[in-house]
Each structure stands twice: as structure tokens, then as C-alpha cells.
Design goal:
Layout lengths: L1 E6 L2 E4 L4 E9 L6 E7 L6 E7 L4 E3 L7 E6 L4 E6 L8 E8 L3 E3 L3 E6 L1
């Protein structure tokens, strides 16, 4: 099992920036996909961005050009840089690991005020 701990959420005004961090520990498989999902009140959880162990990235259309996912393999950390934030980005953001199995973090709240 892999333990994931998110940090970096908070309250920000429209147009602002936040950087989320996810620290991974445990039985991390060398071939994996790390991702950020989000879930807004009353909505389904959705994929925001993902990065493979080879460094390939993929983004939801709604965040392309504004969010950037990256990772530090030495530190087992994944980041989500969020710029030009909008009220519709308000959600709980979850770190996700997919290797031999799938694990989730506890989530971190991001609130964007208008």
C-alpha cells in the first residue's frame, strides 16, 4: 500500500495561484501513474492532471494552460501548480497513485473566491 499526504490547499482570490504537494511513501511500484483529482460539492470526482513514471502528462481541458503537474522522484513527491484560478476550480483535491493497486490521499480543500 502507498500512503499519500496532500498539502498546499487554501483560500485564494480569482486569478491567484496555489501549489499543491503530495508526499508518497510505502510500496511504490517503479511503473506508476500519479494524478490529481478534484471533487466539488454535488459533483463527481474528476481527473485534473496525471503524470506517468516516464514523465508523460495529461490534463483536463478545463485546466490546460493554467495547471502544471510535476514530480520529484528522489523525494517521492508530486506537485500541482495552479495559476489563474477561477471560482469553478473550488473543490477538494485528491492525490492518486496507480501502480499495482490504487491509493488515495485524504484530500486538501481549495477555495477560490470571486
Amino acid at each position: 500500500q502507498v500512503q499519500l499526504v496532500e498539502s498546499g490547499g487554501g483560500l485564494v482570490q480569482t486569478g491567484g495561484s496555489l501549489r499543491l504537494s503530495c508526499a508518497a511513501s510505502g510500496n511504490i511500484f517503479s511503473i506508476n501513474v500519479m494524478a490529481w483529482y478534484r471533487q466539488a460539492p454535488g459533483k463527481q470526482r474528476e481527473l485534473v492532471a496525471q503524470i506517468t513514471s516516464g514523465g508523460f502528462t495529461n490534463y483536463a481541458d478545463s485546466v490546460k494552460g493554467r495547471f502544471t503537474i510535476s514530480k520529484n522522484n528522489a523525494k517521492n513527491r508530486v506537485y500541482l501548480q495552479m495559476n489563474s484560478l477561477r471560482p469553478e476550480d473550488t473543490a477538494v483535491y485528491y492525490c492518486n497513485y496507480r501502480g499495482v493497486h490504487t491509493d488515495w490521499g485524504q484530500g486538501t480543500q481549495v477555495t477560490v473566491s470571486s
